[in-house]
Amino acid sequence: xxxxxxxxxxxxxxxxxxxxxxxxxxxxxxxxxxxxxxxxxxxxxxxxxxxxxxxxxxxxxxxxxxxxxxxxxxxxxxxxxxxxxxxxxxxxxxxxxxxxxxxxxxxxxxxx
Length: 112
Fold this sequence. Notes:
Elements: E1 6-11, H1 20-29, E2 38-47, E3 53-61, H2 69-73, H3 79-83, E4 89-93, H4 94-100, E5 106-111
Antiparallel strand pairs: 1-4, 1-5, 2-3
């Protein structure tokens, strides 16, 4: 029997940079301020043509991310997904997540 590869799909076009996912992960696992299972990277602000600016927040799982396996096994959402205020994080079977990609500002991570 093979286990389905799990992953995390993040739509960073909708991330507001609130850091709720980071704080929830730290709280769930008792991490200090230096550690977390997910981090928010900031891109910009960068001036584009005309009056346009690029300013994005890009959540990314770290090596500590275990997709909240214990929570999921109890029927709960991963803590980052539960606390994401912009609903931009999805976790599940990587093939199913891949099928949901419909924007160039979505990133799919495989978590082992």
